[in-house]
Structures are given as C-alpha cells and as structure tokens.
Design a protein that fits this description.
Elements (H helix, E strand, L loop, with lengths): L2 E2 L14 E5 L10 E3 L7 E5 L2 E3 L2 E5 L4 E3 L10 E10 L18 E2 L6 E3 L2 E3 L10 E9 L6 E4 L2 E4 L12 E3 L6 E11 L5 H11 L5
Parallel strand pairs: 1-3
Antiparallel strand pairs: 2-16, 3-4, 4-7, 5-6, 6-16, 7-15, 8-12, 8-16, 9-10, 10-11, 12-13, 13-14
C-alpha cells in the first residue's frame, strides 16, 4: 500500500504550537489507507475501514479505526486533544453511542456521562445525531485538572481518577462510534486555555456547518 504524504493541510492548524499529531481527515491528501500526519513528526497512520469523505472519515460503528504511533504521553501526562465529530445515530452501539478513542472517550448509557481522561463529564443530553460538535479535553498531569469543552462549554470532571497512558487508536474494533470524525489533534505538554479552545472552534467551524 502506497504511503500518502500530505503537504498543504498543515496550513489549516489554527493552534500549531505544541501539536504532536494533526489529522485533517477531510483533506484528500489524507484519503488513502496509509498516510502521514500533518505536523513536524509525520507519524505514519494506518486506516482499517473508515472510508474517506470530503467532510472527514466515516466510522461504521463496528470495526473501523485509524491507528498511529505512540506520542510519548504517559499516565498522568500533560496534554490536550481537539476534534470535530458527528454521530449518525444516538442508538446504542456495543454499549456506547460514542466511542472515538477506544475506551479513552466513550459515553455510558446508564448515566449518560462522557468518560474521558481524568474522569466522567456530565454532558446534559449528550451528543445528538447529525450535528457537528467541537470537542476538546485538557489535563495537566493529574486527574483533578481535567476539563472537557463541548462547543467551548467547559465541564469539570466528576468522579476523577488517574489517567492511563494515551491510546493510539481512533475508533475501536469492539466498541466504536457510527459517524464522522472531521479532524483530530493532540498537544503534548500543553494545556490549551479556554480562549485557545474558543479560537480553535471559531477558526474551523465554517467547515462543519
């Protein structure tokens, strides 16, 4: 399989400082089965399923996934993640309507909490189907500092716990979402501020209307 090396998409990152993984999955330079990330590190990413579309990669809710190498973010590390996603359905999919990063980010049907690094987050109502959401999670070295932003609305973690090492898979073979991921970014040793999260959403939201 030919490795697809992206060139121009790196111009679309509104917050490049500290970004160790940038995947503008909507761009046709990342439409192949194996491609490099659009950052200084050029990580090799491998696609299983997850069909390319002009708005991102579509995950079928079964076994679609994208894997990338370790980013060196260990347990209780300091990091931030930003993504755009849209669910096709809010119906139960193997126990979780949304599971973007394996067991790293998923929604529990029993209490509707969204589980992510550092704890659970009470996203009232949860994500609805067929709506694009801007999601960011930041954490600073321990479980008590985790914050989740959905469309720039900050939600502090409840029921906090220690974070395990960062996963290297978007989607999961046994517990995945059905829908689109437009773009995905990881920042190492950097906690994005609320202002930076808002700037990021305002700079990219035109693509997800």
């Amino acid at each position: 399989m030919t490795l697809q090396v992206a060139r121009s998409p790196q111009l679309y990152n509104p917050n490049p400082h500290g970004c160790v993984l940038f995947l503008p999955l909507w761009h046709d330079e990342l439409s192949g089965g194996v491609f490099s990330s659009v950052d200084d590190f050029r990580h090799i990413c491998t696609v299983t399923g997850a069909l390319w579309r002009p708005s991102g990669r579509f995950f079928d809710g079964n076994d679609d996934k994208i894997t990338f190498p370790s980013l060196g973010i260990g347990a209780n590390g300091t990091a931030s993640v930003i993504m755009w996603f849209r669910l096709d359905t809010t119906a139960t999919v193997k126990g979780a309507p949304i599971s973007l990063l394996g067991d790293w980010l998923y929604q529990n049907n029993a209490n509707n909490y969204l589980y992510a690094p550092g704890g659970a987050y009470n996203w009232a109502g949860g994500p609805a189907a067929n709506i694009w959401y801007h999601l960011a999670v930041t954490w600073a070295g321990n479980s008590t500092t985790a914050i989740l932003y959905h469309d720039t609305i900050a939600v502090a973690a409840i029921g906090t716990w220690a974070m395990s090492a960062f996963t290297t898979t978007i989607g999961n073979a046994t517990n995945s979402m059905s829908g689109l991921v437009g773009e995905f970014r990881v920042y190492k040793d950097r906690v994005l501020t609320a202002a930076e999260v808002a700037h990021d959403r305002n700079a990219t939201k035109w693509r997800y209307q």
